[in-house]
Design brief:
This protein has 21 helices and 22 strands. The protein is α/β, with parallel strands linked by helices and 611 residues long. The protein folds into four domains: 216 residues, Thiamin diphosphate (ThDP)-binding fold, Pyr/PP domains (Rossmann fold); 123 residues, Rossmann fold (3-Layer(aba) Sandwich), CATH 3.40.50.920; 167 residues, Rossmann fold, CATH 3.40.50.970; 52 residues, Alpha-Beta Plaits, CATH 3.30.70. The strands form six sheets. A six-stranded parallel beta sheet has the order 3-2-4-5-7-6, sandwiched between helices. A five-stranded mixed beta sheet has the order 9-11-10-12-13, with helices on both faces. Strands 14-15-16-18-17 form a five-stranded parallel beta sheet, with helices on both faces. It is globular. The two termini are 54 Å apart. 51% of the residues are buried.
Length: 611
């Protein structure tokens, strides 16, 4: 069959085609659709789960791989930090079945805190990495990754980037999928129980193995050379991933790319397996090359490998790229950017017509904002109102509620990483006894990385207020289920894990569960807890507006409205708009949450005004 699928879908279907037995992960853009695709297609005999975090997902998958099964783990690049503890150890221990870790990098960054480069992690962990440049390659490479994993008994990293994950392509896929047959786990403490002596021995084995893999990769089908194949004084471009697609687009109509002797020959070298570096391939590809331009996203990894290879083999090559400023260190490589780099470095005009946009009007500024009717807005507003006149520090977290930093709410003073809002509030509390310290966390993040922080707060006698913004979903990454939703990816209804009960069990003495749209109660509860010492927790519970059925839109009674604009100035809901001097509510955006009505000083906003 031929299917038109997203890159993430291609990875999922490639894993099914490879006979995967278990798929686990934690949602994070740009990787989330991989698991969702596996769950959507027939997958009898394949266990699929959203784990509570990436560390748990990898550990579940490691056990499956120890049993001889094929396991796939999915996450974004930030999640690889969370999974790094088991990753480093399993690299030493090795596996019996196939273990492929998909860590999707996010150059830009578009939806992440960092631009970290997964190739560095593969090098750090000493495991092979595959770097696809298209959905078609991602489909093929995930299958190759399983083969290499089992051939060399090692975990393997697949590193797609955002533009590969979210691109679409037609993929030829099998009519049926059959999970791999495997013989199960066999007790062998000398192999599966990691000890310093075993690690010492396995470290040497790992390095010897990587030398073999590097030679194997030198013949890998997606490590390619195009363009000028012979001759001296050749200029070359070394690239990988989506950067390869961009450079190839720029060179597609160039005489140099076609080997025209009238033009300076340009050789396009693609390295799809950055680690272990395919050194033999690189030496052959660089034959006759005088100058190399490395165009790659994020770190100068390939550039450094080319420099090392040139030094070891005595190649007299000028190497250009990020290290000399020819290529920027940050952001994505687009086709236009690649064209500019090639033009400046080699005098090559792109093989496509660029569009002159100099006379185009500027794009409208559209900053990210909480949705109209979002319960997080009401939660933040209640805390802000309760803390008027008092010093407070608001520690935010990763999720939709990060948008609470925007004006006019201005309720996020710090945001570091998942779960850090809880623990950072403790650090501030121990150093600022004159302030009320708040830690905000979402319901999914609470399960992923928040609970240990609460235990730490109780054990170390912190004075803080934990605010759990519970909207019954993992909203920012696409509304995936979590332990508090009562369903899992196998389609089963399961017992909900109650956050308030968990907090009580941990030892938090004061726990309140309130509706944030009940503004008076919410404000009163925050004030009450702010006057108490120790760890307190408020669960602001209201479903995500994308999941709950919207109510009738509210409207402004122009006869009552005094145009004070308090509704606009204080909550920043996108459904509140102005027309001339009048304040209006856009009925296409309003969900009838009633927050604006509760703060209007003259009761000019209501749900019955439209009638």
């Amino acid at each position: 069959m031929k299917e038109y699928v997203m890159g993430n879908g291609a990875i999922a279907l490639g894993a099914l085609a490879a006979g995967v037995n278990l798929v686990a992960g934690y949602p994070g853009t740009p990787s989330s659709e991989i698991i969702e695709t596996v769950a959507r297609y027939p997958h009898e005999g394949v266990h699929v789960e959203w784990s509570v975090n990436e560390k748990a997902a990898l550990e579940v998958a490691v056990a499956a791989a120890y049993s001889g099964a094929r396991a796939l783990v999915t996450m974004k690049q930030m999640g690889l930090n969370v999974a790094s503890d088991p990753l480093m150890s399993v690299a030493y221990v090795g596996v019996k079945g196939g273990l492929v870790i998909v860590s999707a990098d996010d150059p830009g960054p578009i939806s992440s805190q960092t631009e970290q480069d997964g190739r560095r992690y593969a090098d750090f962990a000493r495991i092979p990495v595959f770097d696809p440049s298209s959905p078609e390659e991602a489909f093929a490479m995930v299958q190759d990754a399983f083969e290499y994993s089992e051939k060399y008994n090692t975990p393997v990293l697949l590193r797609p980037t955002t533009r590969v994950c979210h691109a679409y392509a037609s993929i030829v896929i099998p009519d049926q999928y059959a999970p791999k047959e495997f013989d199960g786990f066999e007790k062998d403490t000398g192999r599966w129980v990691i000890f310093p002596r075993l690690s010492h021995i396995n470290h040497a084995k790992m390095e010897a193995r990587n030398a073999e893999v590097g030679k194997d990769f030198s013949a890998y089908r997606f490590n390619t050379v195009e363009g000028a194949a012979t001759g001296k004084h050749v200029k070359a471009v070394v690239t990988s991933g989506i950067s390869y697609a961009c450079v190839k687009e720029c060179l597609k109509d160039q005489p140099a790319a076609r080997g025209n002797s009238q033009a300076d020959p340009v050789r396009l070298i693609r390295i799809a397996t950055a680690f272990p570096f395919p050194e033999d391939f690189a030496v052959n590809a660089l034959d006759g090359v005088d100058e190399v331009l490395c165009i790659e996203e994020l770190s100068p990894y390939l550039e450094e490998q080319i420099l090392k290879t040139a030094g070891r083999h005595g190649l007299k090559i000028k190497v250009r790229g990020k290290l000399d400023g020819t290529v920027p260190h940050n952001g994505e490589i687009s086709t236009d950017l690649a064209a500019g780099i090639l033009r400046e470095a080699y005098g090559i005009q792109a093989g496509f017509d660029t569009v002159d946009t100099s006379d185009a009007p500027p794009l409208p500024v559209r900053p990210p904002v909480l949705c109209a009717g979002c319960s997080h807005r009401a939660s933040f507003y209640a805390v802000k109102q309760a803390m008027k006149g008092r010093k407070a520090i608001f520690c935010g977290d990763i999720g939709c509620y990060t948008l609470g930093n925007a004006m006019p709410l201005d309720m996020v003073d710090t945001c570091l990483c998942m779960g850090a809002g809880i623990t950072m509030a403790q650090g501030f509390a121990h150093t600022h006894d004159d302030r009320v310290c708040f830690g905000f966390v979402g319901d999914s993040t609470f399960f992923a990385s928040g609970m240990t922080g609460v235990v730490n707060a109780v054990y170390n006698e912190a004075d803080m207020i934990l605010c759990v913004l519970d909207n019954s979903t993992t909203a920012m990454t696409g509304h995936q289920p979590h332990p508090g939703t009562g369903r899992n990816m196998m389609g089963n209804v399961v017992e909900k894990v109650d956050i308030a009960a968990v907090l009580k069990g941990i030892g938090v003495p004061d726990v309140a569960v309130i509706d944030p749209f009940d503004l008076d109660t919410a404000v009163a509860t925050v004030r009450e807890f702010a006057d108490k010492k120790g760890v307190k927790a408020i669960v602001f519970k209201s479903p995500c507006i994308a999941l709950s059925k919207p109510g009738a839109p509210y409207a402004v009674d122009s006869a009552k409205c005094i145009n004070c604009r308090k509704c606009i100035r204080e909550i920043g809901c996108p459904a509140l708009v102005t027309s001339g001097d009048a304040v209006l509510i856009d009925p296409n955006l309003c969900t009838g949450c009633g927050l604006c009505a509760s703060i209007c000083p003259v009761e000019a906003i209501g749900g019955d005004v439209c009638e």
